[in-house]
Amino acid sequence: MPTKKTEEEKVEKSPKKSTKKTTSSDKSTTKKTSEKKVAKKSAAKKVTVKKTTKKTAEGKVTEKKTVKKELVEEIINESPISTSKNSKKNDDFDWNEFEEGIQTVDAKQIEEFDKLIDDNFVDTYNDNVIVGEVVNITEREAIIDINAKSEGVISLNEFRYNPDLKVGDKVEVIVDIQEDKTGQLVLSHRKARTIKAWEKVIDAHQRETVVTGFVKCRTKGGMIVDVFGLEAFLPGSQIDVKPIRDYDQFVNKNMEFRIVKINHEFKNVVVSHKALIEADIEEQKKEIISQLEKGQVLEGIVKNITTYGVFVDLGGVDGLIHITDLSWNRINHPSEILELDQKLNVVILDFDDDKSRIQLGVKQLSKHPWENLDAELKEGDKIKGKVSVIADYGAFIEVVDGVEGLVHVSEMSWSTHLRSAQDFVNVGDEVEALILTLDREDRKMSLGIKQLTNDPWTDITSKYPVKSKHKGKIRNFTNFGVFVELEEGIDGLVYISDLSWTKKIKHPSELFAISDEINVVVLELDINERKLSLGHKQTTDNPWDKYLKTYAVESSHKLSIDSIGDRGATIILSDELSAIVPKKHMIKEDGSSLIQGEEADFKVIECNSDFKRIVMSHTSTFKVEKSETPKKSKKKDKLCFYRKLHKL
Fold this sequence. Notes:
Layout: H1 4-12, H2 26-52, H3 57-78, H4 84-92, H5 95-100, H6 107-120, E1 130-137, E2 141-145, E3 152-155, E4 170-177, E5 185-188, H7 189-207, E6 210-219, E7 222-227, E8 230-235, E9 254-263, E10 268-272, H8 274-290, E11 297-305, E12 309-313, E13 318-322, E14 343-351, E15 358-361, E16 382-391, E17 394-400, E18 403-408, E19 430-439, E20 444-448, H9 460-463, E21 469-478, E22 481-487, E23 490-495, E24 517-526, E25 531-535, H10 544-550, E26 556-560, E27 563-564, E28 568-572, E29 578-582, E30 599-608, E31 613-617, H11 634-647
Parallel strand pairs: 3-5, 13-15, 18-20, 23-25
Antiparallel strand pairs: 1-2, 1-4, 2-3, 4-5, 6-7, 6-9, 7-8, 9-10, 11-12, 11-14, 12-13, 14-15, 16-17, 16-19, 17-18, 19-20, 21-22, 21-24, 22-23, 24-25, 26-30, 27-28, 28-29, 30-31
Helix pairs in contact: 2-3
């Protein structure tokens, strides 16, 4: 506060701001006063010149200096310094001489001047945020006093978020336009809020502080959050430590976040709520891990369900329950007995050295079903059960809850031809079986179904003697033959060579289909090996006995060509028999070759029942083959000559 004496000195000053000097002569005083006036006029002239060119950048800077110079001069003259020595210095101060370095000012006084300037002068040429006061509100604008040469205006649209704005409120603004077309100072509150918001965001990111944001809406891959008035992105993976299925439950709610990423170039902000949860969970995790022991029972929540097991949250630590450790009963998928977010008790079975992988179990909390198995049950007893699982090698029968026995496929039928277990039973079937082996220590049980019926091979010789004819059903094909079932438990094999007398067969499917019934003859029976050899072609007479007589070698026949191929022609003799004519045997007497459909005489040159082949020739009917006479060896003749000569 200025002293009373200082205020009186202000009043005594003349409008021209000249002060009498008590320690100098009138001449000196008059001279200095004149110089001061000249300096002031010169400064005023400079101000006038600068104002006329203020639209240029250089003019604006000059005007800024001039305004500051005037303010400094005013402060110098009004400075509350009471001593006559200081008053003399203030009266003698000349700005031009100060700029030219002729006159100097104490550093302390300069500091006081700078402080007064900072307190009373607002620089409108920088981008700093200024705190202003609302002095008036019109229908469309708010008038803001920022302690500058003129008051600024802001559109009321920038205050939509604050409908209670009133005169006297303090608001943060930034100079948008120094002077518009009308010479008005235009301010922006929205830009100032944005700058302040970015400063808060950057500070919160650097300090890793927790911020509060408002979840505005849902977007692709996450949520849009309002933080300090800026729109930030919250990825779906950063909402919680567990997967979120319903994002809408967070919309229009305030939540706490941590700023994890800032892109200054694109002005993007990424926040995370998961980071806060993980920080809390990490503390809980350390505490839980330090107390983990094998056999310990804990409460957890089902976090995720997979085909191979269930992940359980133990309060910050995840553990896995394998599907085989969920229940003593056999299950196909964990979702059959558990669901997401379900609470359950688990027991710790094992964990690695750093306790990052924890193996849990549920079924171990109850007694093993084998302990409840009837103690009087023994091998040879009949039991009933339900088919729970079917595999290639057999079927599992659930005798009681959690106790299963295996029926191997070889124990399902007396047949030696093994088939799939699905040919005998289906999942869910109620079956009766005989206990073959029972091991309570290893908790294993083997069962048999075929033992409930008599072995059909006990009287096989009386039922199926050699050369007896029967009817059977085709059960399976192989490359070498067909398996025919005569009755349940008795199968026989028909080799591919025993399927037809006349046809050349590459695969049995060319003649038959699965489940076809065919007539067979027992060719061979091996009781020890339980093998039965059957024949199908033997059920009819062998037509080759007749063909060998009808189509004997050198016999002639008048026939027609049915088809012609690359190697020769084919002649159809009957429904089951055909003959071939090689290409060289199709030449006629005139040198031409037989054509398709042409009728001619043919001579049989080969008839082979083993290979089921008849070969004919047209050329042989008119061309007689010359008999080849054996040539004598010249070497042998020479040897005889030398022997005779030796005798002589």
